[in-house]
Amino acid sequence: MNTPIEINTEGNRIVYVKAVDVADLPRDVREQAGDLNQLYAVHDSDGQQLALVADRKMAFILAREHDLSPVAVH
């Protein structure tokens, strides 16, 4: 995986977590989302989506499990 990840001053690799409206996603993803109205995306510093999960807490856990430092985007 050659994805560019931003490094902060502490040497941590940063990723960004943001809420995504299911209605804005492709149809096949909407179908998989079931009755959820919102999912959470994890992005690198270039905006490339690395993951899409059902809840915010899971997005942060997933990032940390991969030695990344998640930051919330509002």
Question: Can you tag this structure with a few keywords?
Answer:
single chain; 2 helices; elongated; alpha+beta; 74 residues
What's the structural blueprint in terms of helices and strands?
Layout: E1 6-7, E2 13-21, H1 27-32, E3 38-43, E4 49-53, H2 56-65, E5 69-72
Parallel strand pairs: 2-5
Antiparallel strand pairs: 1-2, 2-3, 3-4
Q: What would a concise description of this structure say?
A:
This protein is an alpha+beta fold. Helices cover 22% and strands 35% of the residues.
What does this structure look like?
- This protein is α+β, with helices and mostly antiparallel strands.
- It has one domain (6-72).
- 22% of the residues lie in helices and 35% in strands.
- It has helices at 27-32, 56-65, and strands at 6-7, 13-21, 38-43, 49-53, 69-72.
- Strands 1, 2, 3, 4 and 5 form a five-stranded mixed β-sheet that branches.
- A hairpin with a 5-residue loop joins strand 3 (38-43) and strand 4 (49-53).
- The N and C termini lie far apart (27 Å).
- The mean pLDDT is 88.
- It comes from Ruegeria halocynthiae.
- This is DUF1150 family protein.
- Pfam families: DUF1150.
Query: How would you spell out the order of helices and strands?
Result: EEHEEHE
Percent in strands: 35-45%
Domain count: the total is: 1
Q: Which bin fits the share of residues in helices?
A: 10-25%
Which residues form runs of ≥5 with pLDDT under 50?
none
Largest sheet: 5 strands, mixed
Q: Which value, in Å, is the CA radius of gyration?
A: 13 Å
